Model the fold of this input.
Amino acid sequence: MSTVALVHVVQDTDSGLFMFPHEGDVGYTKLIKDAGTFDDIESAIDTAMFHLGHNFIVFSFYQSS
Done:
């Protein structure tokens, strides 16, 4: 039986790239399927602000596992 969870992804509004975890830091990818997900919106926003300033958008959606 699969479960459904609310997850969040961050996109850089300047480049259009999505963030993902990479070697203890963050990397960037063109594809949303390769984006890293955050379990809570606060972590997504804090990470985005640290790496991107105010140039980001957070998308939230439900994902089955």
